[in-house]
Amino acid sequence: MKRQLTLVLTGIAMLFCIRGQSQSITPFLLNASGGTYDNSTSYTRFEWSFGELVLTDTYKSPSGNLILTNGLLQPCTDKVVSDPEILLFGTNEWKIFPNITTGKFELDFFLNIPGQMELQLTDAMGRVINTRKFIYHCCDRIERYDISNLTNGTYFINARFWPERTLTFPAATATKREGTFRVIKAQ
User: Fold this and answer.
1) Which fold is adopted by the domain 86-185?
2) In whole angstroms, what is the distance from residue 183 CA to residue 178 CA?
3) Residue 155 class from Cβ within 10 Å (0-12 exposed, 13-18 middle, 19+ buried)?
4) Between 65 and 183, whose confidence is greater?
5) Contact 83, 65 (CB under 8 A)
6) Model confidence over 39-56: pLDDT tens digits?
7) pLDDT digits over 133-185, tens only?
8) Are strands 104-109 and 141-146 parallel, antiparallel or unpaired?
9) Torsion angle of alpha carbons 39, 85, 123, 128, nearest 10°?
10) Where do the structural domains in the chain lie, given as residue ranges?
């Protein structure tokens, strides 16, 4: 009796140790033939496959040396890869006023560390309209923009900040910052 109880309890314990398998939340495809290319300078990964059993349209270059299909091996995911050396701008470190604007607006920064700042004003399609680079001197900075000559719509300001590494501002408190701020222009 004692031996049977030990055997049953051991079996139950082993069941708890087995890792449960279920469908992964990340897309996956068993690719029998094809390949991949990881771009080391970005988070882009290219994958290709030959002979999948899905219906896709195929396009051929005039020379015939390139064939393009519109099928995807992996659909887009919302996984965000983050760099521990880069922080997003905090909500108390910037302000856009007025937003919604008829043309003129200002972007204010409230960082307490010096460094270099780069701002890119882009439209909704990602085309760069304006680029600014300047030294940020540890105090409030106001950047004024005038987009009254642009069409109504949504615009974005991509901001990057690289802190100075000095004795006053050690590396532990001086971290790179990035952020994208939305500006809406309407009449």
Assistant:
1) Immunoglobulin-like (2.60.40)
2) 17
3) buried
4) 183
5) no
6) 666 666 666 665 554 555
7) 988 877 777 888 989 888 898 999 898 888 876 655 555 455 788 888 898 88
8) antiparallel
9) -70
10) 86-185
